Amino acid sequence: MQMNKFSQFNYYFELGQIFYDCTSYQISIEYLDKAIRLSTYLPINKNHLVKVYELRGNSNICLGNYFKSISDFSCAIKIDSSNPFLYFWRGFAYEFLEEYPKSLNDLKIAHQLDPEFGLTKSLLDYLEEKYF
User: Fold this and answer.
1) In this structure, are residues 88 and 107 in contact, taking their beta carbons and an 8 Å threshold?
2) Is 3 helix (H, G, I), strand (E, B) or coil?
3) Is the sign of the CA dihedral 124, 20, 54, 84 positive or negative?
4) Three-state DSSP state, 41
5) Suppose 59 and one of 15, 25, 91, 96 were both cysteines; which one would form an S-S bond, judging by CB atoms 3.0 to 4.6 Å apart?
């Protein structure tokens, strides 16, 4: 039985999540890449697509691929600019690349979007104290 394109998208996303949870980040990325390729011509729910980019971004962070993770989080932010976690993780990646002004900017946005997200405040305080 052949799956339709929407089922394939969900299948690849679910496999990406499973391999991420098993810390097999490279394999996770391979499945998430397939889901993203399918999404280019399918009307995928924006929340699902944001989750795919977020998961691939986190997988890339775990592998030390900070430029790729920044690209993924930037794509997700274009779709949903109200998600504080996207700004946090992109800011986190910028911090690893020692791009402190960009990191600080993203962390401030994340904090404005969700003042209760304690990890953002902690990293924000650390950066402001250490570098500014």
Assistant:
1) yes
2) coil
3) negative
4) coil
5) 25
